[in-house]
Amino acid sequence: MSQAVSEFVPAEIDASKWENVEPLLVALLDRPVESADEFERWIIDRSELDATLGEALALLYIGMTCDTESEKRQSEYAAYIEDVAPKIKPLAFELDKKHAVLASRFDLGERYAVINRDTTSDVELFREENIPLQTDEEKLSTEYQAAIGAMTVTFNGEEKTLPQMGVFQESTDRDERERAWRTVTDRRLQDAEKISGIFDQLVEKRDAMGRNAGFDSYVGYVFKGMRRFDYTPELCFAFHDAIEKHVMPFVERLDARRRSQLGLDSLRPWDLGVDPKGREPLRPFDGGVELVTKTQRVFDRLSPELAEMFATMGDGSNSDGARDGASLDLDSRKGKAPGGYQYMRDRSRTPFIFMNAAGQHGDISTMVHEAGHAFHSMYCVDEPLVHYRESPIEFAEVASMTMELLTMPYWGEFYPSEEDANRARRQQMEGSLGILPWIATIDAFQHALYTNPTHTREQRAETWLGLEQRFGLQGHRVDWSGIENPRPLIWQRQGHLFGNPFYYVEYGIAQLGALGIWLKSLEDGEEAALDAYRRSLSLGGSRPLPELFAAAGLPFDFGASTVARLVERVEAELEKLPD
Ligand SMILES: [Zn+2]
């Protein structure tokens, strides 16, 4: 494309400074656009500015999370969030409005259909009166995080945060697991009223936002806001039904096996995380360097192309990627933020992976998962529009989750013992379907909440218990006798309900896609699966969701027949694994 390169933004610019950014935003806003060509030029120039702004924020965020003890980095990030971002927002919205008007005047053809659709939809959804409601919503969500973050317990004589308590659910000592579960649950119950109060307000504010924008409820508003143009609440309900009908019998068979291996008549909530054969947790590697070296070998064996992409990301020996352009920061260390993420630096078009590797199997899944996101960005690196270098979550997670599955044959690089490798594979395959009932629970709960915003807490509890009847506790049928109190409040653990409403079903839709590509590798060979992967990822977000799935040879379908087929195939593969 002739106009692909933009020289609108100076090569050397500190885009974290408002005085550098403002003139560019204003220039775009004021620029006369009188033809389709000029409109295209305008879109590409704006894209370059957006990419530059995005990268400025990425660098500040990466810098802060890699070095939480640096006051300078904390304050630089805070200054941007508090002073610069709020100034950009209204101008960006003016640019969106200008884009929508121009899109109705000049026809740029199919190539621009998705960006025009997305921008026009955002403009249509905007309501001045929703701004204070959104501010309230953010405050409430922060209150929830603060309440959860402040929860600690004393266990085995030591003060622990709730995330730190997670490891005790893997303990082979059943008494210890039960004590840990009860300790955490009691702590959560202490604040349950307060958290319900926060949630009541969130539901009320969100309902008001939806109605302000002309919808019957928040559901229609949030579907449009999340750009769910290609599926409806009805299709989500059909997905829930399919999970109930086809995945629940599968997880019930897993539960039966778990019970017999543990020698129990029934499962209690603290019997779900332990290895059913009583083995100690897997320890596949030691340190970030070893993680990267072995992951590289896994990709070397899977695909030369992916191996080369992974190799460009660095050797992991550099623990401060943010400063010199390296792309990995993996080791857990003091002064580093928790968690893991992949963040694309949009202007330089280089990915960055952040992790806190502790030597567990989960770290391998995270590593190849985030690598999948990075491959996605790298396959789209020549796409001029930043909007199209990103894709909808429903497909972006196909890119990452597929890597968790396609790398499985090569996990021997981490597990010299075949027994360990198979144990890890079993865990991966069981988990890829086992997560679906919880996804259905959280999604169905939110549909029920926001279509019935005036429900009382008691009615919500009934809704929750009804869903637990259908989908178990995270898929498991457990014995609650004597511990009924916390049962209707389990939803309070799921942060998405507070901070990212409705953002969850995406993982389920993507999981089906990832399983679909993996099955292709079993049926048509690895090459065919990798071709489908490359073809679909290279489209980025330039096409609507069903076309992205189609490019991978997948139906965009999450109804009963798709789910039933996947369950049957995964179960057949599981049966091949030695026990
Ligand atoms: Zn992901």
Protein architecture, described:
There is one protein chain. The protein is mainly alpha-helical and 579 residues long. Helices cover 63% and strands 4% of the residues. The termini are far apart. It is globular and about 75 Å long. The longest helix has 35 residues, at 71-105. The protein contains 24 helices and 5 strands. The model is unreliable at 316-325 (pLDDT under 50). It has a 3-stranded mixed beta sheet with strand order 3-5-4, with helices on both faces. Strand 1 (152-155) and strand 2 (158-161) form a beta hairpin. Helix 14 (361-379) crosses helix 16 (393-406). Bound molecules: zinc ion. Zinc ion (ZN) binds next to helix 14 and helix 16. Residues 369, 373, 397, 400 line the site of zinc ion.
Main beta-sheet strand count, sense and barrel state? 3 strands, mixed
Please state how the strands of the largest beta sheet are arranged side by side: 3-5-4
Number of helices: 24
CA radius of gyration is: 24 Å
In helices, the fraction of residues equals 55-70%
> Which hetero compounds are present in the coordinates?
zinc ion
Broad structural category: mainly alpha
